[in-house]
Amino acid sequence: MGETATTHAANTARAYYDSADVDGFYTAVWGGDDIHTGIYEHPDEPVARASRRTDARMAARVADLLGPGRTVIDLGSGYGGAARHLARTYGCRVVALNISDVQNRRHRELNAREGLDALIDVVAGSFQDVPAPDGRFDVVWTQEALVHSGDRARMLSEAVRVLAPGGALVLTDVMAADDSHRDALRPVCERLNVADLATPEFVRERLTGLGLGRVRFDDLSENLLPHYTRLAEDVRRHGDELAGAYSDAYRERLRANLPLWVDACENGLLSWGVFHARR
Question: Is 274 exposed, middle or buried (0-12, 13-18, 19+ CB in 10 A)?
Answer without folding.
Answer: buried
